[in-house]
Amino acid sequence: MASRSSKAPEAMQGKASVTFARRTSSGRYVSYSREDLDSEIGSGDFMDYTVHIPPTPDNQPMDPSISQRVEEQYVSSSLFTGGYNSVTRAHLMDKVIDSETNHPQMAGAKGSLCSIPGCDSNVMSDERGVDLLPCECDFKICRDCYVDAVKTGDGICPGCKELYKSTDLDESAVDNARPLPLPSNIEMAKMERRLSAKMERRSSSKMERRLSMMKSTKSALVKSQTGDFDHNRWLFETSGTYGYGNAIWPKDGGFGDDKDNGGTEPLEQLNKPWRPLTRKLKIPAAVISPYRLLILVRMVVLGLFLVWRIGHPNEDARWLWLMSIVCEVWFAFSWLLDQLPKLCPVNRATDLKVLKEKFETPSLHNPTGKSDLPGVDIFVSTADPDKEPPLVTSNTILSILAAEYPVDKLACYVSDDGGALLSFEAMAEAASFANLWVPFCRKHDIEPRNPESYFNLKRDPFKNKVRPDFVRDRRRVKREYDEFKVRINGLPDSIRRRSDAYNAREEIKAMKHRREVGGEELLESLKIPKATWMADGTHWPGTWMVSAPEHSRGDHAGIIQVMLKPPSGEPLHGTDLDTSSLDFTEVDIRLPLLVYVSREKRPGYDHNKKAGAMNALVRASAIMSNGPFILNLDCDHYIYNSQAVREGMCFMMDRGGDRIGYVQFPQRFEGIDPSDRYANHNTVFFDVNMRALDGLQGPVYVGTGCLFRRVALYGFDPPRSKEYHPGFWSCCFARRKKSATVASAPDENRSLRMGDSDDEEMNVALFPKKFGNSSFLVDSIPVAEFQGRPLADHPAVKNGRPPGALTIPRELLDASTVAEAISVISCWYEEKTEWGNRVGWIYGSVTEDVVTGYRMHNRGWRSIYCVTKRDAFRGTAPINLTDRLHQVLRWATGSVEIFFSRNNALLASPRMKFLQRIAYLNVGIYPFTSFFLIVYCFLPALSLFSGQFIVQTLNVTFLVYLLVITLTLCMLAVLEIKWSGINLEEWWRNEQFWLIGGTSAHLAAVLQGLLKVIAGIEISFTLTSKSAGDENDDDYADLYVIKWSALMIPPITIMLTNLIAIAVGFSRTIYSTIPQWSRLLGGVFFSFWVLAHLYPFAKGLMGRRGRTPTIVFVWSGLIAITISLLWVAIDPPSGNNEIGGSFQFP
Question: For Mn(2+), which residues are the binding ones (predicted)?
Fold first, then answer.
């Protein structure tokens, strides 16, 4: 598909070139490139000349909107491939999947056939699927034949043999039936100056036209789609009149006295009080004050206890005392790092009604009531369809397409890092099913909008459903979804059978050709590559099922397919003529933009795993849709609350929201066993630690369910970051004044800053060195920054944008745009740039999420923790013990990497708050607690074996200290439960798994980290498997599966050692001349403390109840040995007073 060329990245120089090709039924490829057509016309027999024919009734210029929409339709039906040192090709797809596709936005949608003899292409169509016929004779013609007729046929229609005339398909930016608002004379003068400047740039590039949006003001809606202000049209449609240098409101609108026609609306808008989008809900003083006091009390008691312990050593076992002292000092330090950031927890609430009122309600600045919300690009990442089932990914995509957000402002990008045809066709099937599922969700207000989760709800699905046709609609959609699941689950076999058939046909053709050319003797040596074939009978340009050169996981071309083309700017309701039996006449049936992306991979390049895939999506989306905000989701995390994106947007669009780098949502999980044996819900972290961090500089980024500001990902500093740095020493020194350069800089420049110097100004000329040499990408940066600003609807809102600036329809896609997106996902694009270093997701760590969030906080950005009443997102988590340990191992390994890198919080900039720095320091240090924890877990056994204890005697002072420390810990836990909303069982499960993980995965993580730092051994991790679920299987069957891992060795050793030590301790005490019961009780108490924490681990090793796994026999033997030792100790053999005969304990 992607042929090699010696002209490497020429596509990056200026406008990207595309080679269009189409495979005919005979197997021949026909080129449809404009360059090829131009070269045929401009041969040596002709000369270049231009003829200007004035427009006449018989000769009207073609409407540019038609050609642009036709171009977009053609682009959405083409599979774009390319990459390093190869030509970017657009392969026209007759069909994407084997099943029929009917939605007009989808690639490969069925339509009328072209009437040109010998052409089997589809006719051009609009957003509803209605044929676009450029001639009044309604002659059906496809896009390619139309281009031929215009370029080589002198613009003559092949049907009626007349010149093409204009049609009535033009859609202006403003509804013709609605009067245009009248601007003031001051705004008129400013606008005319701006428009005159824009007229000079009419012949500039498409991106420059996007940049002109930054120059729009409150009166942006009075412009037409081309940017011209039509004075005559305004006077006619608004009945306006011009005075001497002034413009006045007409009598039937504006500031008139007529109250019936809404003439007082502008005054009401001006007098309306400003309302915030979010509120901060402080924790009640009756809870937070005792909580802070207890922290202080426990800090003092821990200090006094450690001082007492150091001053009272155990002279009989100084080694045991020293080991315990070192561990206890570290535990106190670790607890302090974990507890200090919890001093200022907060809760937050959003107001979606105010958001709708400000951005989607008709007003003075937005008379049409079109959505003024900024665009959002949603990223879904997947890498391996074997471990991440396509059905799970498809359900996630469907929940995104059905989200409650303006359809034309939403775009979904799916990154398939494995380049598998299975993922591609599953995504196409999901896009086809969305034609039915999304309107159904909008019509009946379905929650959740993941079909798998919705149809498996345990509650009554008919509750609060008032429409009489809901039962019929739900039954139909459920039947369609069952068929959809069958098609998804059958895709692997379907692709395999199809590929085998095509490969067999190719082999027969090759053998026939060899027989005709070379005879019979060479037939045995013939080898045909086992290719993977697409539904339209062409080779898949990505990874083949049988790996081949340029078609393997680490070696394939970049691929972009627009599955669902961008929707129109106006709502599109269903009709009675729709093929679906459901009534969607009152429902908007448009679907958001959906794009499949598989970045190029070549041998010899470091592709940087998930972080590299995310950065490729950032660049591709910047060129294709350029949403100022990015929401990233794992393939198994779907939108559970359809209003989730709006909830996050409340924070971004509120006053001061321009300084928010990202909004993190909590992770909620499904499919966890009711007892949550291995603390998979992780509620202590998500509901306690993250809420507490929200009161500082913000929560850490946890990898999924995060709404980013695009310019924050680009590595820019937040606005007004140079005015004052709230560093650690800010309380000791006076505020630093702004430099004259910064104070006098324009508003646009002050919003895009990168660097640590106050005098540094934004130098656009340096952008290619930071972001690469794509001019499209560089030009999109200031547009994204401007569109992401909050509304300037209050004097306190700084760095805002005027209302109504984002009601302009989105730019249509063209081939050069998609070709540019192909070039920025190539494997060589990031060379000698700052991608992965300062820009985008940060490379160099297996936990790229934490590092990326740390870099943003280090530059001064804030983050927000958005906890919604209804969970925003839900996903799956591994419930198997081994998978859970490996997950914790990966997290801990990333923390160790952070500690030994320049991302250590000790090296943070002054812009990071002190307690936020403490929190990040704890992120890098917590795995090292494993050394001290393992030693402390062995101390009870050593005490019982030796007959000694960590203190000389169990006196009253030691017991009082121990009691106070334990009580304060329990009281702190109760208060945390009170202000966070978790329950006691969840807190206890977290404590148990803290010890299980600390004695297994954390220790291995520290060792791996040290190996990487000292020996340079790279760390690899396995992808966490996602289960697609099976209705016939036990929901928690994976919980009982026992997979042996070396991580289990330390906890098993600790359990067995403590069990044997308890038996030995009892026997020693019973047979000692002077029994030391206090030492026995101390050792036994701590041993039981260790065993109680390891109980879930032991239960996991036992497997399913009712079965007898091998591990049970091992346990039985060990327990039998322990009981035998105890029996020998209680009743030794006659004539021997020593335990075990001649055996002597130390």
Answer: 610, 634
- Check if the beta carbon of residue 830 is closer than 8 Å to that of residue 245: no
Of 23, 13, 24, residue with least CA distance to 816: 13
Q: Distance between the two ends of the chain, CA-based, in angstroms?
A: 76
381 labelled ligand-binding: yes
> What pLDDT does residue 1101 have?
80
Q: 585 near 573, Cβ under 8 Å? A: yes
d(CA 146, CA 152): 10
pLDDT for the residue numbered 81: 86
Residue 417 is a catalytic residue? yes
- Chain center to CA of 189: 44
Structure tokens at 374: 């900024």
At residue 164's C-alpha, the angle toward residues 162 and 166, to 5°, is: 135
Does 289 appear as a known binding residue?
A: no
DSSP, collapsed to helix, strand or coil, labels residue 136 as: coil
Q: What pLDDT sits at residue 14? A: 42
610 belongs to an annotated ligand binding site: yes
Which residues does residue 163 pair with via DSSP β-bridges, in sequence order? 156
Enter the DSSP assignment of 1021: -
CA dist 424 → 96, 98, 497, 942 (Å): 9, 12, 17, 59
Residue 428 exposed, middle or buried by CB count within 10 Å (0-12, 13-18, 19+): buried
Reference 1094, options 1140, 1058, 1126, 1041; nearest CA is 1058
Instruction: Tell me what percent of the chain is helix, strand and coil, each rounded to the nearest 5.
Output: 45, 10, 45
- The pLDDT averaged over each successive group of 10 residues in the chain (1146 residues) is 39 46 44 40 37 46 57 75 79 68 62 74 67 77 77 76 57 32 38 38 43 39 36 37 34 38 43 81 90 94 94 87 93 94 93 92 84 94 90 96 94 94 94 93 92 89 80 92 94 93 88 74 67 90 90 91 89 73 87 94 89 95 94 94 95 92 94 88 93 93 94 90 49 39 44 53 72 91 92 82 86 86 92 92 90 94 95 90 90 91 90 93 94 92 84 86 92 92 90 93 90 74 57 65 84 88 80 69 86 89 59 59 60 49 41
Q: Is 387 annotated as a binding residue?
A: yes
Dihedral pair phi/psi, residue 270, rounded to 5°:
-70, -35
Does residue 465 have a known ligand-binding role? no
Q: What is the residue type of 435?
A: N
Identify whether the C-beta of residue 346 lies closer than 8 Å to the C-beta of residue 283: yes
pLDDT score for 186: 38
Output the DSSP codes for 387-453.
Answer: TS-HHHHHHHHHHHHT-SS-GGGEEEEEEETT-BHHHHHHHHHHHHHHHHHHHHHHHHT-SS--HHH
Which one, of 591, 574, 592, lies nearest residue 583 by Cα? 574
pLDDT at residue 521, as a whole number: 55
Q: What is the pTM of this model?
A: 0.80
Report the C-alpha gap between 7 and 815 in whole angstroms: 20
Residue with tokens 């929201």: 657
525-554 burial: b if 16+ Cβ within 10 Å, else e: eeeeebbbbbbbebbbbbbbbeebebbbbe
Dihedrals φ, ψ of 348, to 5°?
A: -130, 155
> One of 636, 849, 883, 1038 is an active-site residue; which one?
849
Q: Clarify whether 258 is annotated catalytic.
A: no
Annotated binding residue at 478? no
**Cα diameter, the chain:** 128
1079-1109: burial string, b at 16+ Cβ within 10 Å, e else: bbebbbebbeebbebbebbeebbebeeeeee
| Residue 358 marked in a binding site | no
Q: In this structure, how many other beta carbons lie within 10 angstroms of the beta carbon of residue 425?
A: 24
Name the active-site residue from 408, 416, 417, 871. 417
| Residue 90 to residue 1: CA distance in whole angstroms | 9
- Which helix (H) or strand (E) segment is 662 a member of? strand 660-664
